């Protein structure tokens, strides 16, 4: 990691950016803690999403196809099905607060 990445990561952490593992079991706790913090502060929510995702390689394409088949969704040719569990959880949590 370069010095600039270290500084940016530190600055993002100080500004309560939410760093995710892309595994909802561990991300759920992080999301709940930071959203609870924002709710207790009394500030309006502001969400900026950096959609870093999965490259559309053959393995990811096959996983997306299987997910679509399992959930009766259309199969996409040029994009992958998005991972929405964390986002939906976050929005539902924000509506409560």
TrEMBL record:
Gene Ontology MF terms in the entry: acyltransferase activity
InterPro entries: Plipid/glycerol_acylTrfase (IPR002123)
Signal peptide span: none
An annotated GO cellular component: endoplasmic reticulum
Source domain of life: Eukaryota
One Pfam family linked to the record: Acyltransferase
GO biological process, one term: phosphatidylinositol acyl-chain remodeling
Residues in Phospholipid/glycerol acyltransferase domain copies: 7-94
Entry protein name: PlsC domain-containing protein
Organism listed in the record: Angiostrongylus cantonensis (Rat lungworm)
């Amino acid at each position: 990691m370069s010095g600039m990445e270290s500084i940016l990561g530190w600055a993002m952490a100080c500004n309560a950016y939410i760093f995710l593992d892309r595994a909802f079991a561990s991300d759920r706790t992080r999301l709940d803690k930071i959203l609870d913090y924002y709710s207790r502060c009394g500030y309006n929510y502001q969400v900026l999403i950096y959609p870093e995702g999965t490259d559309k390689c053959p393995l990811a394409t096959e996983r997306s196809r299987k997910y679509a088949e399992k959930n009766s969704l259309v199969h996409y040719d040029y994009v992958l099905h998005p991972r929405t569990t964390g986002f939906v959880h976050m929005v539902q949590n924000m509506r409560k607060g």
